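Re: weekly structure request thread

Next one in the queue (199 aa):
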Amino acid sequence: MPRILSEADVADFRERLCGAAERLFAERGPDAVTMRQLAAELGVSPMTPYRYFQDKDDILAAVRTNGFDRFAETLEQARERAKGARAKGAAVGEAYVNFAFEHPHTYKLMFDLNQPHEGEYPELVRAARRARETMTGWVEDLIAEGVMAGDPEEIGLMFWSAVHGPVVLELAGKLPPGTAKRLQHTLATTLRKGLRPEA
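Done, posted below.
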C-alpha cells in the first residue's frame, strides 16, 4: 500500500521534478523529453510523475509558470528598492538582463517556446501576464515624473523587444559576453531621450 503523501511531500517532489524538467526541456527541447526520462532523472518509477502531473504538457506549464513568477518577482523587487523613476527604470533593466544570464534555461523556456493550448493553464496565463506587467510599471514611473511621454504599454513592449534580442544572441554565443548588459543601458538611455515630453 503506497504511503499517504503530505502536502509538503507533494510540493517537494513537484519542485524536484520541475527542476529536472526545466534543465532537460531547455537542453533537448520538450518534444525530445519523455516522462520516463524525467522519472529516471529522479530515480523513481516511470509512473510516479503521473501521480503529480497529468502529462508532460502539464509539467512544462508548471515549469514556465514558476519561471514567469520568479522573473516578475525579481523585476518587481528591483523597481521597489530603487528610489526615483530613473533609478527604477535602470534597476529593472539590469535585473532583467541579470535574470536571463543567471537562469538561462528558465529564460529560454519562458520566452523562446510556444506552448500549445496555453489557455488551458490559468496559472501560466496569470504568471505570464504578471511578467508582462513588469515591462510597463517602470515606464509609468517615468511618465508620472515627466521624464518620458507616450503609451506605457507600447514603450514597455519596445524596451522588452529591444533587450530580448541581445540577450538571446549573447546566450547563443553570437555576441561577446557583456554585450546585452551594455546594449540594455544604451537602449534605456536612448529611449528616455527620444521619448521626452515636448516642452
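The chain has two domains: 1-53, 56-194. Residues 1-53 form a domain with the Arc Repressor Mutant, subunit A fold (CATH 1.10.10.60).
Next request, please.
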